[in-house]
Specification:
By secondary structure, the chain is an alpha/beta fold. The protein has helices spanning 3-21, 66-78, 106-118, 133-146, 163-170, 175-184, 199-208, 228-231, 233-238, 263-271, 285-296, 303-313, 317-320; strands at 52-54, 83-85, 123-128, 154-157, 191-195, 213-217, 242-246, 277-280. It is globular and about 50 Å long.
């Protein structure tokens, strides 16, 4: 079987899987109003997120966007969004004279302002970018303080990129030791890993530890270069992990005349894959409301429609995958995670 045939077979499986996950177990006999928001199981966590979830970037990481950010977060919860993702690094000042946990990030600060009164309404996820046990635990204390909570529903290792970093992450006094300790102390409930640079590195990581979730880059341009869809997603599904899709519009760089041009195509493509939910950062309340509306009306796409969108994305691969490992060895990559 050729690689292309194998990938097409996977897409067909994904379409069937997405259709099967579109409504959470136990909701099939619920009243029509309860079915208004399609949900899917988040792996083994026991949570069933709405298939659109709120990301902590875009306006939520910008210092001059306080009012619109608070409005976005509150409106998201009002509309039924029950999963919010943020990170210690989002909107964090850059100061080489201070440690990461001494610098409060804007995104966690904004989310925390809303969590002070609405914590029980959402599954709250954040990320740690320190790779050491001590540093990670200090970052967790910072996250809990900024987010006005005594626990995270999901704590994730942020943006794992290289095989070399795995030795630190999984080594003695590495961040994984901090994660296990924090889970044992009930400071966090579930453990995850994230990345959008190289699917092979993340595949090795989830073979080394039973993470509950994985946050990976998935969009219509993905199959055309370093594909997470074929190299990582099947492995995560086999392990029954919760899968969260990100980089859906690639910070809007996926969109281009002659390529993908609508958020509906971008979101529907990824939601047709076997994922639990997608996270997208929003610039305005109007953008948020559009994304929620797309998710509420979503139906899995047929294979021909998936192929159409993929073909459009082939006309904009560089911008649609700008966050991945550069195609030229040694070339500098772009970083929008503020992790330096």
């Amino acid at each position: 079987m050729t690689e292309e045939l194998s990938r097409r077979d996977f897409v067909k499986i994904g379409i069937a899987g997405a259709a099967g996950l579109a409504v959470a177990p136990g909701l099939a006999d619920a009243a029509p109003s309860a079915l208004a928001l399609p949900t899917r199981p988040l792996g083994r966590t026991g949570h069933h997120p709405f298939i659109f979830s709120l990301g902590g970037q875009a306006s939520l990481e910008q210092a001059d966007k306080h009012d619109v950010s608070i409005a976005i977060i509150n409106r998201a919860i009002d509309l039924g969004v029950n999963y919010i993702d943020t990170a210690a690094a989002y909107g964090r000042p850059r100061d080489p004279m201070k440690q990461r946990w001494e610098l409060d990030g804007i995104s966690q600060t904004y989310v925390g302002e809303v969590m002070a009164t609405r914590r029980k309404e959402v599954f709250l996820a954040s990320k740690v970018d320190d790779r050491t046990k001590d540093g990670a635990l200090r970052q967790l204390e910072q996250s809990l303080r900024l987010l006005h909570t005594d626990h995270l529903d999901l704590w994730q290792i942020h943006n794992v990129q290289t095989e070399e970093s795995l030795e630190t992450i999984f080594g003695t006094n590495g961040v994984v030791e901090a994660m296990v300790s924090a889970r044992d102390q009930k400071m966090v409930r579930n453990l995850g890993i994230t990345g959008h640079f190289d699917p092979a590195v993340l595949a090795k990581a989830i073979d080394r530890f039973e993470f509950d979730t994985i946050l990976m880059a998935l969009n219509a341009a993905d199959p055309h270069r370093l594909p997470f869809q074929s190299e990582l997603l099947p492995l995560a599904n086999k392990k029954k992990m919760g899968v969260i899709g990100m980089k859906i519009p690639a910070r809007d760089r996926l969109f281009k005349d002659g390529a993908v041009t609508t958020m509906k195509d971008a979101m529907s493509y990824v939601l047709t894959l076997p994922v639990s939910t997608v996270i997208i950062g929003c610039k305005t309340v109007a953008q948020l409301e559009e994304n929620v509306a797309i998710a509420k009306s979503f139906s899995p796409l047929p294979a021909a429609e998936m192929a159409r969108i993929e073909a459009l994305a082939a006309n904009n691969v560089a911008d649609g995958t700008w966050f991945k490992k550069p195609p030229t060895p040694g070339a500098p990559g772009e970083d929008d995670q503020n992790m330096e």
